[in-house]
Amino acid sequence: MAYTDITSHKGPSIAPSKREKKDNTHWLYIAVIIAVIGGIVLGLVAPDVAQGLKPLGTTFVNIIKMIIPPVIFCTIVLGIGSVRAAASVGKAGGIALAYFITMSTFALAAGLVVGNLIQPGEGLDIHANSKAVEEALSKNAEQPHGLIGFIQSIIPETFFSAFTSGSVLQVLMIALLVGFAIQSMGKAGEPILGFVAHLQKLVFKILGWILWLAPIGAFGAIAAVVGATGVQAVVQLGVLMLAFYLTCVIFIFGILGTILKVFTGFNIFKLVKYLGKEFLLIFATSSSESALPNLMRKMEHIGVDQSTVGIVVPTGYSFNLDGTAIYLTMASIFVADAMGKPMNIAEQISLLVFMIIASKGAAGVTGAGIATLAAGLQSHRPDLLDGVGVIVGIDRFMSEARALTNFAGNSVATLLVGTWTKTIDKEQVHRVLDGKDPYVAAEDDADVDLRYPSVKNPATETLQPTPQLDVDAYHNASTDQPGVTGSAHPQSNVRPDLSTSKGPLDK
Could you give the CA distance from residue 469 to residue 3 in angstroms, rounded to a whole number? Predict the structure, then answer.
């Protein structure tokens, strides 16, 4: 399949994509593993020395706090833009969004139930920085309480003071106002949305650099915890990881499988088998977005209408993050229990609803999961923020389960929305799932880099592109190029840049 190189023509230029850019995140993964092992060994061998390294973990958390306001602002503004895009395509978009909200609730409930049943952090007795706790409690005491006090606390004194006050809720307030204002402006707001998309790229580039300090933070935090509690900390962290994996398995084959069977009659086990190669790819890369192009093609092959696939799959990668919801739930409960300050059910629900809202639109961003966890704790329970340093040490080990659960959720969502909107060929689905019509990549696909598929995305084609699916920028540029040749639709022979999609909400 031949593609026209739009960068070879005169006129506005677009930098060529770096297709061969190496992904060095596996070195970060290895470094975190070494740091965790080193921290455990030091904590067991020299507990006094290990406890003195606690500031390393605290410093890393403080650096994460620094980047939280712009992360929340950008993701919320772009998330609202995505809602508008999805809703604008009609019935399928509305049904998809309603389903995503419902399944996020189910995922939160599953995480809450398991987290409160096993209480993996109970008994660790991790002590936070006493000065930080005193400051947090003092600040909280100064705030007026009740409904009126809450409303007053989320309104900043000035537009920009929200970003310097340390109040995540004030940033959220500003982001919501900006997002809805851009939405109401229609086409006039598209350049602003495009600017925020570029700002998000800048912010997450900085966040990516910060994450390279994770091994140092994890080493200090794990060493201090093991030094203070002994081998019990290792056991408790292992229990958390095992419980999370089991919860994800139950969610996929229990909750998602039941919903799929009841509403469509399809078998979840056959669907997982059909998408087996994609599941293996995700397990190897810890990124659900690495399989996005093939998922769209396979969903079309299985019998779902192309327009429905183009709406549900891209939107789902930002709004249907079941694995991430479970992770945020269990991680929050673990931190609270480990620090001896458990949250009641009302606090848990309030915190987790905030986290789910804050994570919308952040798919494809390295470190967004940890940033969202830290932001939620800072806004609702600042006295628990130091506990994030312990989670950093095992976060990478849970990324595969998050990614696989997110992917399974989006696969099931596509079949469900197709069924509810009657844009699916059920006979074709059964033929494919029974192995009678296996998916075979088109001959032209042999020359196509799967990171740059020819995919039309109705969910974003009327808006400035987000960093996840940069379709319109190429479409607009190609129509401006005087010498471009190809089909009547430039999208069909210009590759949207998916190279930045790392899927770190999974990570």
Answer: 18
Beta bridge partners of 470: 497
Which H or E run contains 67? helix 54-88
Q: Tell me: the pLDDT tens digits for 83-95? A: 555 555 567 778 8
Q: Where are the domains of the chain?
A: 50-74+92-150+206-439
Q: How many angstroms separate the Cα of 481 from the Cα of each of 8, 9, 245, 348?
A: 10, 7, 50, 53
Smallest CA-to-CA distance from 398 within 260, 243, 263, 294 is with: 243
HSE on the CB side for 395, CA within 13 Å? Answer: 34
Please give the model's pTM, rounded to 2 decimal places: 0.61
Q: Could you give the 3-state DSSP secondary structure of residue 52?
A: coil
Give 183-226 pLDDT, tens digit per residue. Answer: 888 788 888 888 988 998 898 788 778 878 888 888 887 788 77
Using CA atoms, how far apart are residues 68 and 374, in angstroms rounded to an integer?
8
Q: Identify the burial level of 450 via C-beta atoms within 10 angstroms of its C-beta, where 0-12 means exposed, 13-18 middle and 19 or more buried.
A: middle
Select from 472, 471, 468 the least CA-distant residue to 502: 468
Which architecture does CATH list for 50-74+92-150+206-439? Orthogonal Bundle (1.10)
Instruction: List phi, psi (to 5°) of 430.
Output: -65, -40
